[in-house]
Amino acid sequence: MAISEAERIRRAEELYYKRRYNQNYRTVQEKKKKHTFIRWLIGKVIYILLIIACVYGYNNKEYLFSEKFKEDVNNFIKTPIDLSDVLNKISTKGDKYVDNYGEKVENKSLNGKIDEEESVEKIYSANSNLISEKLKNISKKISEQSIAKVSNKNISNLNVEEYIKSKCDFIKPILGKVTSRYGNRTSKYKNVSKNHTGIDIAASIGTDIVSSIDGKVIEVSNEGNYGKHIKIASNIDEEISILYAHCSEILVEKGDTVKQSQVVAKVGNTGNTTGAHLHFEIRYKNEYINPDKILEF
After folding, report:
1. How confident is residue 40, by pLDDT bands cut at 50, 70 and 90?
2. Quick one: DSSP state of residue 285?
3. Domain range list for the chain
4. Which superfamily is assigned to 171-293 in CATH?
5. Whole-prediction pTM value?
6. Phi, psi at residue 244, to the nearest 5°?
7. Is pLDDT of 246 > 90?
8. DSSP one-letter string for 208-245
9. Burial class for 264, CB neighbours closer than 10 Å (0-12, 13-18, 19+)
């Protein structure tokens, strides 16, 4: 914590008085204040007496220059005067003033400390609440992550295909002949992928395609090898999704909620194809799943 210049000077003076006079800094300062007050008070008294004397002299000019005044002055000088009582009274007044001033300073300092303690307590309380909230959030996240890990382990133990079938009751999107199965395949056409990510079901252009599950449309596009295609995520587990590709027409939009058996598209021949058909995919966490292990075609 940085120390102000005034505080440095105060500490230096305190060290000086302690070493030089073997006295406490505060005691020396109180004595200084007391002596300063006495000097100030004596000065004021002398100033007032001078004013009174001037006013009195102006109003009594004849008396001041008479023989009577000289006699009175001589008598006054000859008369002994005890100033100890006057000085004691002045000293007593000065002590009271210094004591009152010290009490005010101490009270002010004490109030400042109390306010500071209250502020610290408020800050501590606010920080405690904030820390408590953060700990709750962290605990919640850890709990969610633990549940997710346990869930993933359960899925792994069950087998992904079994998990998908336990969550969603699929129906066939169209009725037709399967012309290409999931996995590796051979073809005389160069534009046909050797690793097939779904199954192809032959049908005439314009045949209705129904949704295999209840869900939400998360993608509608006509770009790439899929041509016009649609992707639907399950409303039970959004990690489970289906994709229909090479459509001639899409009847829903992204964000729409669809019901199982609802017509969502028409069979087509768009994108990279060798004829009219539906390319059907099932995915879990965007990984390809063999549709033959979910449905019987």
Report:
1. confident
2. T
3. 5-130, 171-293
4. Glucose Permease (Domain IIA) (2.70.70.10)
5. 0.49
6. -115, 130
7. yes
8. EEE-SSSEEEEEEE--STT-EEEEEEESS-TTEEEEEE
9. buried
